[in-house]
Design a protein that fits this description.
4-stranded antiparallel sheet, DNA-binding, Helicase, Ruva Protein, domain 3, single chain, 2 domains, N-terminal domain of MutM-like DNA repair proteins, alpha+beta
DNA sequence: TCCATTGTTGTAAC
DNA sequence: GGTTACAACAATGG
């Protein structure tokens, strides 16, 4: 599942190889991924040069020379791959961008087809519904802005961290890992967390995300970077996916519960619920 | 057959 | 009545 560190890894890979390249030709194989008329998408994107590749939350943004930007969300299983045009297409390849001045083409692959791609006028970015609702970026947020995210909020800390409108980029893996490191129970009521606990949480989230980016993200399910390589942060997971296994801090069994219809992994001894 | 997974949407509940 | 919680939905493999 691509979350911030996986998306950031893909963005860095794309940036390295795509900057300055021209998109020669667009082939929409499965139109369901492109959330606008395929002909319009082709027309907007073809024959333009790639200026810049960016990330916002879990979204990828590709700015083109003709005042157009491509917006991509990888959903659960989406990935971008750079590969030789001669290679046979995989049955989950849904979009092919042929590039000038390179031996590679850019493929969008998505087994579950939950990903979304579209183009828009670059100047309209602030009006885009997908982006304008997003909360702040976890890696930049200041201590006071982070505390403010949670003031006057009720509910559980894990649900809030997963909410992209409050905080953009975290998914199930990195909320669980961060809450474990910060010794906060996922069901902890937000209004019972004091500013000191929140500051610990902010620093922990940043530490976990940075370590994950350094490891090239977590490869569970089928996540690959643009060169087709897997990440290695799954080897450093302390709780995610470890139900029944001993806690790496205290040794008792990791528990799994459901929060907001998502599996939540935590240590019932290290992550104590306060009220 | 059912479960797992994501973000969004509609609705129920508090 | 604003905020929160949850079911349903998209698609597919295990």
């Amino acid at each position: 599942m691509p979350e911030l560190p996986e998306v950031e890894t893909i963005v860095r890979g794309l940036r390295k190889t795509l900057a300055g390249k021209k998109i020669k030709d667009v082939n929409v194989i499965f139109p369901g991924i492109v959330k606008q008329n395929s002909r319009h998408f082709k027309k907007n994107v073809e024959k333009s040069k790639i200026i810049r590749v960016r990330r916002r939350g879990k979204f990828i943004l590709v700015d083109l020379s003709n005042e157009t930007t491509i917006l991509a969300h990888l959903g659960m299983t989406g990935s971008f791959l750079l590969r030789k045009p001669s290679a046979a297409l995989n049955k989950h390849d849904h979009l092919v961008l042929k590039l000038d001045k390179t031996q590679k083409e850019l493929i969008y692959r998505d087994l579950r087809k939950f990903g979304k791609i579209k183009s828009f006028g670059t100047s309209l970015e602030e009006k885009l519904p997908e982006l304008k609702k997003l909360g702040p970026e976890p890696l930049n947020i200041s201590p006071s802005d982070f505390v403010n995210l949670f003031t006057k909020r009720k509910g559980r800390i894990k649900s809030a961290l997963l909410n992209q409108q409050i905080f953009a980029g975290l998914g199930n893996i990195y909320t669980d890992e961060s809450l474990f490191e910060a010794k906060i129970h996922p069901l902890q009521k937000i209004d019972r967390l004091n500013p000191r606990a929140l500051e610990t949480l902010r620093q922990t989230i940043q530490k976990v995300l940075k370590k994950a980016i350094k490891a090239g993200g977590s490869s569970i399910e089928n996540y690959y970077n643009v060169d087709g390589e897997i990440g290695s942060f799954q080897l450093q997971h302390k709780v995610y996916g470890r139900e029944g296994l001993p806690c790496k801090r205290c040794g008792i069994r990791i528990k799994r519960i459901k929060i907001s219809q998502r599996s939540s992994y935590f240590c019932p001894r290290c992550q104590v619920l306060h009220n």
